[in-house]
Request: fold
Amino acid sequence: LTQQGDRAGSIAKLREAVQLAPANPTARFNLGVLLAAEGPSPEAIEHLGAAVAAKPQDTEARRELAKLLRDSGRLEEAAREYARVVQEAPADEVARLGRAETYLRAGRYREARGLLEEDLRALPQSGLLTHGLAHLLAGSPDLSVRDGSRALELALAAWNARPAPAHGETVAMAWAELGRCEEAARWQRTAIEIAEKAGFPAGAQDGMKKALARYEGGGTCRAPGRAPGVETPG
Reply:
C-alpha cells in the first residue's frame, strides 16, 4: 500500500497489526515512521517508543525516536536517546549530528561544539559531521563559539568532497565571519547558482538571497549573533 502511494491505507493496516500484536516491534516501527512523516505526533512517539522497548538493540528505531522527541521539544529525552545510539552504534554519523542539533536547540552551543569536535575525531572522514561543525563555527548564535578560520578549513573540505549548495553557503559564512565580504558574496552566488540548476524551490532560495544581500551590502557581513550571556530580543 505504501509503495502504491496509499499512505492512509497503510497506516490503517498497521494499526490493525498493532491491535493484533501490540508487542510486535516491526509493526510498531513501521507505523511510527509513517506517522512521523506527517509530523512529530504523540502517537508516532508512542509507537516508536514501544518498538524500542520491545527491541532495545534496534538503534535505527531509537534514532528515529530521538528525532521525534527532539522535534517535539522534549530535548532532554532526545539527548539521552541519541547518546544511547552513539554508545551502541559509534559509526552512526546521523545520530551524532542529531545529538549535536538537540544541544543547539537547547541553546547549549558550546556543548554542541564539544560534541561535534569529539564526533569528528571519532569519524574523521564524515562529511556530515565536517559540515555540521563548520556551520556551527561559522554562524553560532553564541559569538564566543565561533572560529572563522577553522570553519573555513572544514567548510572547504566538505565542499571539495561534495560541491552542494549547503556546503557553498557554509564556505560563504566562514568568509563572512573572517570579514571577507567579497569572498562571501562570490561563494554565496555560486551556491545559489547550483541550487537553481538543481531545481530548488524559490522559497528555499529566499534565505540564500537574503544572506547574499548582507554580504554585498558593505559594512559588517558576518551572521548575526550575540555575546555569551546576552539574550536576543524577541
